[in-house]
Amino acid sequence: MPTAGTDFRALTRDAVLAAGQQVVLVGSQFGTEWDARFFDWRRNYGAGAYEVEYGPEDFSSCASQPFGSRFVRFFEDSTFLSSAIAPQDPPGELDAALTRRLVACGINLFGFDQLLPDDARLAALAWSWAPGETAGKGCATQRPDDGRWERTSCARKRPAACRTASGGWTTTAGTQERKAETKCADLGATYATPRSFAENAALRRAAGGERVWLSIDPSS
Fold first, then answer.
1. What 8-state DSSP symbol labels residue 165?
2. Cβ contacts of 24 within 8 Å, gap of 6 or more
3. How many CA atoms lie within 13 A of 75 on its CB side?
4. pLDDT tens for residues 133-182?
5. What is the C-alpha to C-alpha distance for residues 70 and 103, in angstroms, rounded to an integer?
6. What CA–CA distances, in Å, run from 84 to 75, 81, 90?
7. 139-160 b/e with 16+ CB inside 10 Å = b?
8. Alpha-carbon distance 52 to 49, whole Å?
9. Which tens digit of pLDDT belongs to each residue from 131-140?
10. pTM of the entire predicted model
11. Can you tell me the distance from the alpha carbon of 169 to that of 173, in angstroms, rounded to the nearest whole number?
């Protein structure tokens, strides 16, 4: 999609999907042919700069910035070079607890420093599939105890997850997964799968303790 002169803050996830795209290219190349292909990824470059990057010190609550529907990046700078240049201005720490709070707000891009394979921040990012559940046979469900997703037999009757026209969630009566799309349509809603931590939590509340079908295609 054309990107020249586009304010990255105005780009929504739905706009990307509506354009039939799945990848967004961003960069900091100015005055070159790349500007026509990449969204500008700017911070503090003068008046009118696009504020899409934040540090840990910028966060106070989910309502403090346009989080959730926009593409926003949180980063930390704990490199030796930064410490040497500005020892009087230590950077905020993007730890696991803050990472989880940001994920709950809908933040979708992170820049971690000193990241290791067993880093607790990686676990804090996860909210959808339960460990070991991204592959295998069966239909996707949201389990009631913690909202994580698992595959179960498609033969059972369960409520189906339906996104309403207002963006909220409701569920059907118990049905086989293959009938879930029709059952949601009968309610004026769309058989769907949460796209963020907040949506997943809202569906879990709407499910009222029931395990529900999600609209991810069954594995073979």
1. T
2. 11, 16, 39, 71
3. 11
4. 866 789 999 999 999 999 999 999 999 999 999 999 999 999 999 999 99
5. 13
6. 19, 5, 10
7. bbbbbeeebbbbbbebeeebbb
8. 9
9. 888 667 899 9
10. 0.72
11. 14
